[in-house]
Write a structure and sequence with these properties.
Layout (H helix, E strand, L loop, with lengths): L3 E14 L10 E13 L2 E14 L5 E3 L5 H11 L2 H4 L4 H29 L6 E5 L13 E10 L2 E6 L7 H9 L15 E4 L3 H6 L3 E5 L3
Antiparallel strand pairs: 1-2, 2-3, 3-4, 5-6, 5-9, 6-7, 7-8
């Protein structure tokens, strides 16, 4: 569940004088600012509005925005809405930007690694594959599986094919992550699949190979 919504933060300023309160004619006011912001998982993400006002120290009468002299409104905004107060209100946006940059970096790194894995395959490499692009008798609803390299010889890679097929790639990724795909019993023992190493790159580009995991 995603928790989001709007909240507000009040910033208290200094006491100003020289303005008559329309309610009690007192001339002392406390300045304040109200920052409304959108939050995601309670993390301030984006400022939606900034309001300034003054409160009479005697009768608590409030005057905000257009009720204030323009020069005073600008002075209060400058004094209260400093970088120290405003920047934390964009924390969520900064976090999201960092996650996007990290995601792009990770994707590029994985892509570079997979190119190396294809050009220099190793025994026990795990391939998440689209079975419909490799075998003719595959159920199109459960088209994802895992193939594991068992031997490399004479320009060919020998693969075992998983007994299990998935309707989503996430199922295959989970079995790799949990170690299930490292078990011998996970693979069909009726025969191996032999593929020329120089054809692996073409299979990746055609979508037959989705991703490669090299076990450390």
């Amino acid at each position: 569940m995603i928790f989001f919504g709007s909240r507000s933060k009040t910033v208290t300023g200094q006491v100003v004088e020289g303005i008559n309160c329309p309610n009690c004619e007192n001339q002392q006011f406390i300045t304040y600012g109200l920052i409304k912001y959108f939050h995601l998982y309670w993390i301030p993400t984006l400022i939606t509005s900034k309001t300034v006002g003054i409160e009479c120290t005697h009768c608590k009468k409030n005057m905000v925005n257009n009720e204030l002299p323009e020069h005073l409104s600008k002075e209060i905004k400058t004094a209260l809405f400093t970088k120290k107060q405003v920047l934390p209100m964009f924390s969520g946006l900064i976090i999201i930007a960092c996650l996007v940059v990290f995601g792009v970096y990770t994707a590029q790194k994985n892509s570079a690694n997979e190119l190396t894995y294809i050009e220099q395959p190793a025994v026990h490499d795990l391939y998440i594959v689209n079975l419909t692009k490799i075998f003719d008798d595959t159920d199109p609803e459960y088209k994802y599986g895992i193939m594991r390299i068992t031997h490399l010889k004479s320009g060919q890679a020998e693969f075992q094919v998983s007994r299990i097929a998935y309707n989503k790639r996430s199922g295959a990724r989970k079995d790799i992550r949990t170690g299930k795909a490292s078990s011998e019993a996970y693979y069909d023992d009726s025969g191996s699949l032999y593929i020329d190493i120089d054809k692996l790159k073409d299979m990746k580009e055609a979508g037959a190979i989705n991703s490669i995991k090299r076990l450390e």
